[in-house]
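User: Reviewer 2 asked us to show a designed sequence for the structure in our supplementary figure. I'm pasting the structure tokens here. Could you produce the per-position amino acids so we can include them in the response letter?
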């Protein structure tokens, strides 16, 4: 198995601290000020990186889809919304500068080749392939050609589709993320038991990208062998937008980071021992002492 993938200056893999990605995505609602507040939140909570989403709207969506009626702060069509949520060069230059000031990595999931080229000018530490793009061979090859580590999400994908994507990408500097692409995800569809099987099947580090409510599943994912956890974050789940309901608010993110850091402590080293703190309890509570001495 590939032991670890180096993202920026951080090694990500089994037996290493969990690499936590705070997905801002489109939860900035088209506002750089809001994006900066979310960067502040992720940095203060101790996340390793923040992630955005980048699309060339007229390439990713059909004319019919863009013309679909959809009321938003940006207008009355789905196209108005999609264009309103996209940051351009000026906004990403500001984000790049701000993340450097806050000492936190940032990267993006790019949904088309032009978006990969756009983000590449900022020299990101890695690229994310979204679940929606897993079957896009041309995009996979174009992204791989940038020579950076790739994080591959596997929502709404069969094992055969994942096999093909891994064949296209290769396993070098690859992390595969178990994911279910419903927002929010029902508890009975989180399916964390997939994590060990993905690790065995592909021999690369496995992460978890969660869209469920609550924190437990993300903490369990790390305990079950995920080397990285990605969760959407928001300032307020009641804000307008499709992803906020499946996102963590500030208090939730702080609790998640606290609990993830405690996982290795709770897991221990696997050796069954009698702890010094237990020995006085033996004397106090055991009626029959074992003949084998406890040293």
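Assistant: Here is a per-position design you can include in the supplement:
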């Amino acid at each position: 198995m590939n032991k670890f993938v180096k993202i920026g200056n951080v090694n990500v893999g089994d037996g290493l601290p969990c690499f936590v990605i705070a997905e801002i995505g489109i939860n900035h609602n088209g506002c750089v000020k809001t994006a900066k507040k979310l960067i502040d939140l992720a940095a203060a909570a101790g996340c390793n990186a923040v992630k955005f989403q980048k699309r060339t709207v007229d390439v990713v969506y059909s004319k019919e889809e863009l013309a679909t009626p959809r009321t938003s702060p940006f207008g009355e069509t789905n196209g108005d919304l999609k264009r309103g949520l996209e940051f351009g060069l000026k906004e990403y230059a500001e984000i790049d500068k701000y993340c450097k000031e806050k000492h936190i990595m940032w990267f993006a999931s790019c949904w088309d080749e032009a978006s990969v080229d756009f983000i590449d000018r900022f020299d990101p530490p890695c690229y994310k392939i979204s679940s929606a793009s897993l079957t896009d061979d041309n995009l996979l090859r174009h992204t791989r050609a940038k020579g950076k580590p790739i994080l591959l999400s596997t929502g709404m994908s069969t094992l055969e589709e994942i096999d093909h994507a891994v064949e296209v990408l290769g396993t070098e500097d690859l992390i595969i993320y178990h994911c279910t692409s419903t927002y929010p995800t029902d508890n009975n569809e989180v399916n964390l038991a997939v994590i060990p099987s993905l690790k065995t099947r592909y021999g690369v580090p496995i992460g978890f990208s969660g869209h469920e409510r609550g924190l437990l599943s993300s903490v369990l994912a790390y305990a079950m062998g995920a080397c990285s956890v990605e969760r959407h974050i928001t300032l307020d789940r009641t804000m307008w937008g499709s992803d906020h309901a499946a996102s963590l608010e500030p208090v939730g993110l702080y609790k998640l980071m606290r609990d993830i850091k405690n996982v290795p402590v709770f897991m221990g080293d696997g050796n069954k021992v009698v702890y010094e703190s237990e020995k006085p309890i033996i004397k106090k509570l055991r009626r029959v002492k074992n003949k084998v001495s406890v040293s």
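For the response letter, you might also mention the following. The mean pLDDT is 95. The two ends are 39 Å apart (CA to CA).
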